[in-house]
Amino acid sequence: MTTTIAATKPTVRYHPIRGAVYGLFFGLGLALLLMVFKVLGLSVPLMIVLGLVFLVLGAVWGRFAPPRATKEPPPERPTLAGTPRTTTLETPATPTAPSD
Known about the structure:
By secondary structure, the protein is mostly helical. It is about 40% helix and about 10% strand. It is built from two helices and two strands. It has helices at about 15-35, 45-65, and strands at about 1-5, 80. It has a two-stranded antiparallel sheet with strand order 1-2. Helix 1 (about 15-35) runs antiparallel to helix 2 (about 45-65). It starts with a strand and ends in a 19-residue tail after the last strand. The relative contact order is 0.23.
């Protein structure tokens, strides 16, 4: 029995949806903050525009930002070469009486 370890290419996962949600919350929060401190006038279209702009920026950042470093590499998965992947249940043979 030989064990072979296949070389796997590490996959990088990006999170554009998460970035979009975080960007939306950031944009709405920033718009609200600017309105509370009277930097900008109270305007619903301005809140919508800032929310959408930061939604798009968050989605782009979630897709094209450099990925974080992993804490440790994932363990390698050994594969057994030549072993069948199917399992069968064997039933015990029933004894038969010898025929005359």
